[in-house]
Amino acid sequence: MLTEKTGKSCTGCGACAVICPKKAIRMEDTKEGYCMPFVDPECCVSCGLCEKTCPELSPVVLRTPQEVYAAAAVEDDVLKTAASGGVFTALAKNFLEAGGLAAGCVMDLEDSRARVHHILAAEERDLARISGSKYAQSDSREAYREIGEALKEGKKILYSSLPCQCAGLLRYLEEKGISRDGLYVIDIACHGTNGQNVLNQYLAYLSEKHHGEITGYCFRDKERSYQYSPKFCVKKGKKEQWIKLTLNEEGYWYLFQRSKLNRDSCFSCRYSAPERCGDLTIGDYWGIEDAHPELLAQNGGLMERRKGISFVTANTEAGRQLLSDFGRELMLFTSDYRKVLVRGDSLKAPSPVPEDRLAVLNLFETGDFGKLARYARQQQGTGYYKSILKENMKAENPFR
Description:
The protein is α+β, with helices and mostly antiparallel strands.
């Protein structure tokens, strides 16, 4: 059976559930918070289609980057809402203007709970929703179906997601016999991800702590920094207030960045390597100040580090064409993959399993994020308070 063959390598992409002709596979959260497939033996007819579609059992082709760039959107309005250098947002903007569709991740909030999922955007007004980072695994299943139908209608689609989900889409389309002509895939450099249950446990904690409903959450407030600068909106009665957090407050970022609650598959991820499954790969260009100091505004260049700079690799001819046809609102400067790899740990190998992962999982299973928050503060020691003081002193608006 599928789940016995994939085991801990399952990435939760959901392609198996979407392809199943009998709807015998449901995606449910485990006690550790990971979305996993469960097969109903009474509905299953053993057709084997799920196993053929699974990108872990039937891997997609991975390709070595052909071209490498340091990249950033030209427009400040794009940089403000986008993650890093705004590459996907700038490409998607031009793609939509040309009549195409852009599939990206959105986070909807209701009753202090988040639903992180992919949508197919047709209007520029949807750009803000699919821009920016959402640090929890998205549900892309409905988008797989919609993309398949749109491709059959001859539409052009730009899809961006985690590489495991990109692989799930490609396998789904192949097994459905749908041509991927007109589809451009962008995979994101990813060090691992936790499930939506972790995020929702955190939001419930914030709601209780601040005595109100959480109606908005931003992982990277670009008005403050190109790095992780979270803020959330709490509603009390008829009043809403945005509250800014520093990097290590409340523990969510501490746990995420250190892979404490990553799903099992992240620790053996086949996509944490130079070879990629997307036409393009994008991510933060960490270390740009050492790799290309000549590009930075402070040294007479055109790129501003404090507004965010990405790396982008073209891995296929379609990727090169995508940049050529729709990258007119991007600054692109030729780089070297070896320079990207200096600080690009997620492109070299999967994250190692943290020594305290079991202890953290046990805390999560209590359902009380407050315990996780306290644990994170204890692990940081005095550095927790020093980091908050330091960040508050350095707070500035890079777009001012």
